[in-house]
Amino acid sequence: MTVTTLTPNQVQTYLAEIFPQFDATITHIDRDGATLELPTNERHLRPGGTVSGPTLMALADAAMYVAILGNLGKVALAVTTNLNINFYRKPLPGRLRAEARILKMGARLAVGDVLIYSEGLDDSVAHVTLTYSIPPNSEATD
Fold first, then answer.
1. Is 3 within the bounds of a domain?
2. Residue 138 lies in a domain
3. What gap in Å lies between CA 113 and CA 121, rounded to an integer?
C-alpha cells in the first residue's frame, strides 16, 4: 500500500468530513504517533468541576485514530476494538493534551498508548492503551 504523508491540517480537514463532532486540534502527526489538544468547557465537566472520564476516553481514542492515519493515510474504517484507561489524578478544567504513540502497527491490528496531560499539571492525568482493527486490504485514499 502506498501511503501519502498527511499534515495535521489535512487530517483535521478529513476528520471534519467523517467525524464532525471532533473538536480537538491536531498539533503533531508522524508515523510514530500524534499529539492533540482539547480546550475543555462546561460540557466536558462532571459534578465537582473535573473533566469527565468520557471526555478523556474520547480524546485518547481520537489521538490514537489520528496516529493510525499517520501510518496508513485516510482509512475511515479502522475501528477501536479495545480501550483501557487508568486515571492517575483529577484533570483540571482548561486545555488537555493527548500524546499518542504507536506501539505495534500490523496488517490487521494496531496497538498504542496515550498519555493525557492537563494544563497546569506536570504529570499525566491518565494513561490509555488501545487496540484498533485495521480493515483487510485497506487502501488509503488521498
1. no
2. no
3. 20
CATH number at residue 49: 3.10.129.10
47 Cβ contact list (under 8 Å, min separation 6): none
Query: Which residues, other chains included, contact 90 with Cβ-Cβ below 8 Å and sequence gap of 6+?
Result: 50, 125
For residue 73, tell me if it sits in a domain.
Answer: yes
Q: For the full predicted model, state whether its pTM sits above 0.85.
A: yes
In a domain, 2, yes or no: no
Cβ-count burial of 121 within 10 angstroms (0-12 exposed, 13-18 middle, 19+ buried)? middle
Beta-carbon contacts of residue 99 (< 8 Å; ≥ 6 apart): 33, 35, 63, 114, 115, 116, 117
Q: Which domain holds residue 58?
A: 8-133
Q: pLDDT tens digits for 111-132?
A: 999 999 999 999 999 999 999 9
For cell 487530517, what's the residue? 11
Per-residue pLDDT of 9-64, as tens digits, reads 999 999 999 888 888 999 999 999 999 999 999 999 999 889 999 999 999 999 99
